[in-house]
Design brief:
mainly alpha; Globin-like; 8 helices; 76% helix; binds phycocyanobilin
C-alpha cells in the first residue's frame, strides 16, 4: 500500500534519480492540499453512517426496481449487503483521499470485484451511481465545513467508478 510520497520515492529510487522539478511540484501540491484532505476525512468520519444511509435512500428513490422483487437489492439481506458495500467504498475512499494515492483501492477493494459482482448479478451501473451520489453528498458536507477546494474529494470516488465500469476485454 502506498501514498503520494512513498510512490514518488519508489519511482525515483528505481531510476536512481534525485527528485526533479516534476517531483517537487507534485510533493508541493500534495502537502499543500494535506490539511484539506485530513479535514475532509474528519468530516466523513463524523457522518459516515448518515452519508451511507442518505446515499442509499437516494439511489433506491432513483432506481426503485433495485429493491423490488427481482431486483438485486431486494430482500433485507441483499439490501443490507448493498449498504455495506457503499460503506466499504466510503471508508476506502477516505483512506485513498488521505494517502493522495489510489493504491489502497486497487489492493483492498477493486481486485476481483467486478468478477464477484458479475457472478452475483450485482449491477455495476447502479453501483456506480450510488458511489457518485455518495461523492456529491460528501462534497456538499466538506464544502459546508469550510473546505474551499473540494475537488480533492473527487479522485477516489471517480477512480472506483472508473475501474469498476471498465469493460472486460
Ligand atoms: C472491502 C472490499 C469489499 C467489497 C467492495 C466487497 C463487495 C462485495 N459485495 C458483495 C455482495 C453484494 N453487493 C450488493 C450490492 C448492490 N446490489 C445492488 O443492487 C446495488 C446496486 C448494490 C449496492 C449499491 C449486493 C446486493 C450483494 C449481495 C448479492 C447476493 O448475495 O446475492 C460481495 C459478495 C459476498 C458478500 O455478500 O459479502 C462482495 C465481496 N466485499 C469486500 O470485502
Amino acid at each position: 500500500m502506498r501514498d503520494a510520497v512513498t510512490s514518488l520515492i519508489k519511482n525515483y529510487d528505481i531510476a536512481g534519480r534525485y527528485f526533479d522539478r516534476n517531483a517537487i511540484d507534485s510533493l508541493k501540491s500534495y502537502f499543500e492540499s494535506g490539511t484539506a484532505r485530513v479535514y475532509a476525512a474528519g468530516v466523513i468520519n463524523g457522518n459516515a453512517a448518515a452519508i451511507v444511509k442518505e446515499a442509499g435512500l437516494k439511489l433506491f428513490e432513483e432506481l426503485p426496481e433495485l429493491i423490488r422483487p427481482g431486483g438485486n437489492a431486494y430482500t433485507t439481506r441483499r439490501y443490507a449487503a448493498c449498504l455495506r458495500d457503499m460503506d466499504y467504498y466510503l471508508r476506502y475512499a477516505t483512506y485513498a483521499l488521505v494517502a493522495g494515492n489510489m493504491d489502497v483501492l486497487d489492493e483492498r477493494v477493486l481486485q476481483g470485484l467486478r468478477e464477484t459482482y458479475n457472478s452475483l448479478s450485482v449491477p455495476i451501473g447502479p453501483t456506480v451511481r450510488g458511489i457518485q451520489i455518495m461523492k456529491d453528498i460528501v462534497k456538499e458536507q466538506v464544502a459546508a465545513a469550510g473546505v474551499a477546494n473540494t475537488s480533492i474529494v473527487d479522485e477516489p470516488f471517480d477512480y472506483i467508478t472508473r475501474e469498476l465500469s471498465e469493460q472486460d476485454i
